[in-house]
Amino acid sequence: MRKQPNLGQRFMAIVGFLALAVPLAPPAHGLVPVNFVQLQVTGQESEQAAPMTDRKKAGAASTTVNLKLRERPDISSASLGTMDKGTVVSLTGQVQGRWSQLTWGSKTGWSATRYLNTGGEAKQEPQSLLRGNPAAKQYRYVQQSGATYSHWDPKKSTVLGRIHLGERYEVRRWAASSRRDEILVDGQWVWTAVTDRRPVALQYRYAQSTGPVYTASGKVTGTIRRGTKVQYGAWNSKTRRDEIKLNGRWAWAGVTSRTAPRTEYRYAQKNGNLYDRADQTRDKKIGTIGRGTKVQWATWNAANRRDEVKVNGKWVWTDVTNRQKPAGSLPPVSNVSDYARFTTKSLSLLKDPSFKAASAGRVDKGMKVTVTHKAEGGWVKVKVGSLSGFIKEKDNLRLHGPYSVAVYGTLRTGQSAYNVMGGFQQKAMNQRFSRSSLYQLWNRNWTFLTNGPKTVVAEQFQYSDARGPGMLRKLDIYESQLRYQGRPMYTRQNVRMADGSQSWTYKTTAFSEKVVKNSGRYISSGDFLKRS
User: Fold this and answer.
1) Would you say the pTM of this structure is higher than 0.70?
2) H/E run at residue 8
3) Measured between alpha carbons, how far is 236 from 218 in angstroms, rounded to an integer?
């Protein structure tokens, strides 16, 4: 017959069963939830703590990262300072969970054990003895603008700041119970519920009119000008304001929207002054504006009856502008990078960008001109020889000269075949082919234009409609005489010049280019006269 347990034995059995059935309570400090996931190691102290033990001997150690010394074994504890990587410290022998107590100079505190090297007097383990690699950094993206907090637990946390749509931050942990990530913001680890793995594109807004910007509490903190493009954070439906990033700071504005407003302009109705502000009692004169000047417009100040306009790249205020162009005024003229074109007809050059302006001379059809300036309304200022004046660009200028021929060898001025080029109406010296190279093959005078990375010196000859067709036929016959293996070495092609125009020239074929590049001599100067 089995002996029955006494009362004391029954009591101990019940206690043992309950110990197995009931989960252990979390550590007393309550910092780490049961469903807490460590995403990566980042060189910062862990928040996890455990009862005090003496399992590590006292002795010397050195830090393996820049490491904080804290008053208590708790990441929320006050910092006593940051020890540089390699700092020698003395261990007291006291350990609590993942923390070790140590002495640094005159200070005694706690640091994460994993970042202390105890393998000798301030010596670190050789890299070859370390196992594995440091975990790669992970990142999260802000799905919608929201707050950052001091703690993973909503009951214990306080608001620390705000992060914004589309921003990316390093992450190290995830608290499933509160659905918060721990992220690194401006050097501080904080908690938030608005981040996720999925990247989010930054969004932007445009100021539809000039207006004030506000703090979150509604205090005016600045002004945003019409047309300004800003990064977008969030929309407050109660105040009907967008959260925007202006001049590096986040603020709120009620004048922004997704679409960019159309750029508007104003014209000076008469000569007038420019001011640094709209307020007439505190303004300062900072310049003048001439009658007819066209300027970009931002806003209108009704109290002072002034427009805010952009003059010479700066925003200023004036009281002499209006939407209408003043009668008889000339559009402002601006410089452009010079480029060349050919006239499509005989043209009269004008002294000003106006059909009422006096004539500055005439240019024949097919002549090469250089564009030097532009003005509103499609006007350009061109120069040809000693003449310069304004014409309308559209329908009067073309890219390719139909009877323009650029030459680079014996057809150039003063060379052995120059007499072939007679009958031209214009000659442009010191021109260059773009994206070309020059080679010499078999004979000192046999040079070949190929594709290449540099430019080649040329002259351009322009012929009239009457002489042009015949001249092209003549040159086609002349250039087709040089052959190799029964194939012509030259072919007439339309090529681009360095000044932006296009001309006919005689260039290598695909076949002859291989021949000259394989067997010829490269002329690095790109100039037939310097071929030696």
Assistant:
1) no
2) helix 7-21
3) 12
SS3 state of residue 143: coil
* Cβ(46)–Cβ(37) below 8 Å: no
Q: What is the DSSP letter of 391?
A: E
Contact 227, 207 (CB under 8 A): yes
**Tokens encoding 485:** 């293996």
Q: Closest Cα partner for 332 from 378, 388, 294, 360?
A: 294
The gap from C-alpha 123 to its chain's centroid, in whole angstroms, comes to 45
Measured CA to CA, the distance from residue 524 to residue 439 in angstroms comes to 9
Q: With 60 as the cut, is the pLDDT of residue 295 above it?
A: yes
Q: Closest Cα partner for 145 from 159, 127, 161, 162?
A: 162
Locate 41 and state its tokens. Answer: 């190691």
User: Residues 91, 56: contact at Cβ < 8 Å?
Assistant: yes
- Render pLDDT for 323-357 as a digit per residue (tens, 0 to 9): 988 877 788 888 999 999 999 999 999 999 999 89
- The first and second tokens of residue 348, run together, are 């009269």
Going by C-alpha positions, the residue among 87, 44, 76, 374 that lies closest to residue 187 is 44
Residue 86, by phi and psi: left (phi above 0), alpha (psi -120 to 50) or beta?
A: left
Residues 162-177, mean pLDDT to the nearest whole number: 93
Encode pLDDT of 256-275 as tens digits.
Answer: 999 999 999 999 999 999 99
d(CA 446, CA 489): 10
Cα torsion 313, 315, 321, 325 to 10°: value is: 30
Q: Which residues pair with 171 in a beta bridge?
A: 138, 183
Residue 409 near residue 448, CB atoms below 8 Å: no
Nearest of 501, 484, 506 to residue 412 by alpha carbon: 506
pLDDT for residue 3: 46
